[in-house]
Amino acid sequence: MKLYGYYRSSASYRIRIALNAKRIEWDYVSIRLDKGQQHDPDYLARNPMGFVPMLDTGDAQLVESAAIAEHLELIYPEPPLYPSDPIARAQVREMQHIIGSGVQPLTNLRVLQHLRAEFGQDDEGIDRWCQRWIARGFEAFEARAKERSTDGLFSFGNSLSYADAWLMPQYYNAQRFGLDTSRFTTIESIVSHCSGIDAVAAAHPSRQPDAPP
Amino acid sequence: MKLYGYYRSSASYRIRIALNAKRIEWDYVSIRLDKGQQHDPDYLARNPMGFVPMLDTGDAQLVESAAIAEHLELIYPEPPLYPSDPIARAQVREMQHIIGSGVQPLTNLRVLQHLRAEFGQDDEGIDRWCQRWIARGFEAFEARAKERSTDGLFSFGNSLSYADAWLMPQYYNAQRFGLDTSRFTTIESIVSHCSGIDAVAAAHPSRQPDAPP
């Protein structure tokens, strides 16, 4: 398994958590988004959106983190990152998409670059934009986690799921953009617990080989 | 089955296609986004992002179109809207997410309202913004469809899939925002073919009870 990613790409971080949790061996290939390597014609030919992560399984090169997550669950079912009950499973997927389509696409690098270039936004404007959309998503995620988390240890039920794998990177991004997350008490509790799990901790951006020293 | 949606919400349109294709009986409940009904406390209590669609199955109220799609496939497997081969399935999901996370979140109503209010964008600015992101997504979707469509009739292989259910509403939005789609020849061919399928045609915004006359 070869994961093409970038240390602080939140979608790459999600898949690192999943690979680690499922104890799948993987090699890291850094696609330096800060140097525009995602626009290399070779990379674009295999992945026309030019996003990370891309997972090379040997049989195929898979892109889009939500599609990769489903694939890993199918091929490496243990430990499960989705509950087996169909409705519970739909609820975990909902929590993934609150973040994956409700928040992250708005704070994507290409969008922030466009806001700077076209609407003259400086660092402060960018932070304000990101904080706004992350806060909206976190309000919804918090409401769901409050109903669905067993003891505030995990986002859904009482074990690690894809809802956590999507939450952790978004929380990292929230910090990066200066959002005060203290009012999201359930999220705070989950993040604090999950940060102590080895599979999750090892996926943190600061522990990737392409992170600045 | 009760579908809470809005005629021109593209995520609602996706699920209408899926329900029709799977011949599931459903009733329509209009959430008038133009009147802000998605912000009603009653609706938000059941769906904290305040998005449409929400599918009430009797057992549960499911939100997020990608989660609803997976659930429908599990409970109503015929006709399938995902291929059975795992890699093919991941490829269809990739095509869904090129649109569902790569494009649509950026052209969501709340984002466009924010661009008007905060960055002073008028109709022309909004069209430019939407055209930009839809075109980027369509370039990637076109590249994938060119490789994966059997004869330019469907987005993947030779039958209707969730890739088509995600494409059709995005194409409708592309027209709404004035994007010239003529260079996306595979997409044009697929949309033209799928528009003639009853299940797809009946899902069109113009045929919903809350569409303007």
Describe the overall structure.
2 copies of one chain form a homodimer. In chain A, strands 2-1-3-4 form a 4-stranded mixed beta sheet, with helices on one face. The two termini of chain A are 26 Å apart. With 213 residues, chain A is α+β, with helices and mostly antiparallel strands. In chain A, strand 1 (2-5), helix 1 (10-21) and strand 2 form a beta-alpha-beta unit. Helices cover 52% and strands 7% of the residues of chain A. Chain A has helices at 10-21, 41-46, 65-75, 86-100, 109-119, 123-148, 162-176, 185-194, 198-201, and strands at 2-5, 27-30, 54-56, 61-63. Chain A has 2 domains: 2-79, Glutaredoxin (3-Layer(aba) Sandwich), CATH 3.40.30.10; 86-199, Glutathione S-transferase Yfyf (Class Pi), Chain A, domain 2. The interface between A and B is large, with 42 and 42 residues.
Give average pLDDT of chain A, whole number.
97
β-sheet strand percentage of chain A: 5-15%
Largest interface, with counts of residues having CB < 8 Å to the other chain, equals: A-B, 42 and 42 residues
Widest sheet: strand ordering of chain A? 2-1-3-4
Q: How many DSSP E strands of chain A?
A: 4
Radius of gyration of chain A: 17 Å
Shape of chain A: globular
Helix content estimate of chain A: 40-55%
The structure class of chain A reads alpha+beta
Order of helices and strands of chain A: EHEHEEHHHHHHH
| Regions with little confidence, pLDDT below 50 for 5+ residues of chain A | none
Kindly report the CATH topology of the largest domain in chain A: Glutathione S-transferase Yfyf (Class Pi), Chain A, domain 2
